[in-house]
Amino acid sequence: AQRVTQPEKLLSVFKGAPVELKCNYSYSGSPELFWYVQYSRQRLQLLLRHISRESIKGFTADLNKGETSFHLKKPFAQEEDSAMYYCALSLRDTGFQKLVFGTGTRLLVSP
Amino acid sequence: EAGVTQFPSHSVIEKGQTVTLRCDPISGHDNLYWYRRVMGKEIKFLLHFVKESKQDESGMPNNRFLAERTGGTYSTLKVQPAELEDSGVYFCASSQDLGTRVYEQFFGPGTRLTVL
Hints:
The structure holds two protein chains of two kinds. Chain A is an all-beta fold. Chain A has no helices and eleven strands. Helices cover about 0% and strands about 45% of the residues of chain A. In chain A, the strands form three sheets. In chain A, strands 2, 5, 6, 9, 10 and 11 form a six-stranded mixed sheet that branches. In chain A, strands 3-8-7 form a three-stranded antiparallel sheet, with no helix packed on it. Chain A is globular. Chain B is mainly β.
């Protein structure tokens, strides 16, 4: 079965430090990978998707098919990055409709 | 543009009662999804509508859950009778018609359901 693993429940860093939120997936086909973010008292929103190959708010994520990973990185964390981050995949089998989420990682950036 | 809206924001009911959650998608979005996050676990897919038709209901936990989308506009998710394990946050999302592209799913604020 398809699965997304985010091994860290909480990641705590100081402002200006590099950040890497880990995401591994299990799926034999070619998935679409996403990072969603939920800031305090806001709704879940798309941060970035691997097919876009773009940087959003300084975050990047590279799909590594060999390691089946899609880690989220930012070289210098900011306090406003504190939020809950969810890695998710969608599958060609379902027409890329159904999202499979990881359990999420809470990022806390301290001043 | 108004985003996805959900009603109510919170619901506290007793075991055995019935609860109906409502979702209004973004206008013009044919795709509507329901997800659920049970405390401490991942957000799980429940089902997907294309207009008024159920495209995929593989995530519906059991027959106590009934989802409808009359006229292809808003959707309701009814839980009858509610059990303790149904407690969690129910999210609704919508997206444009897929075609050959993967469109972003826009999420609502969620309904927090507590079954006592």
